[in-house]
Give the backbone structure.
Amino acid sequence: MKKIVLIGSGGSGKSTLARQLGEKLKINIYHLDALFWKPNWVGVPRDEQIKVQNDLVKKDEWIIDGNYGGTMDIRLNAADTIIFLDISRTICVYRAFKRMLKYRNKTRPDMGEGCEERFSFEFFKWIWEYPKTKSPKILERLEQLSKEKEVIILKSTKDVENFLEKV
């Protein structure tokens, strides 16, 4: 486990798990949200996202957390370990709401500077629809990759805790 990708819905715990793994394994963490959002929620163009990720995956060790489906294959192909947090939508929405309250009008540690936490109906809708719109394609892709890479699917907080204990 030297090149680790963490994917999952908003609120699934990607950034938290990334930090915990980074501490345990002494590997640098790269939060894609922090890299791909400029102040006031201005997104980084896709060609820049591709360049940044191509540079990151050349490193000897890394933990990269984030979805960004249009460029996910860059990370998936370079990883030796892929962790999919397949957490229930109810828990994800609850966590995202709790996080929104905690960081309201502040920038989260795993977010781009100048992107203050706020309520976004679109974001909560994306979380709610993730199990139907995103998960099936991700699971299909992970099935293909499972023959050559370690694919870990964690479905609950308990699964995450058990996984961390074994690392």
About this structure: The first strand starts at residue 3 and ends at 8. Residues 16 and 101 are 17 Å apart (CA to CA). The two ends are 9 Å apart (CA to CA). The beta strands are 3-8, 29-31, 37-38, 42-43, 62-65, 81-85, 150-154.
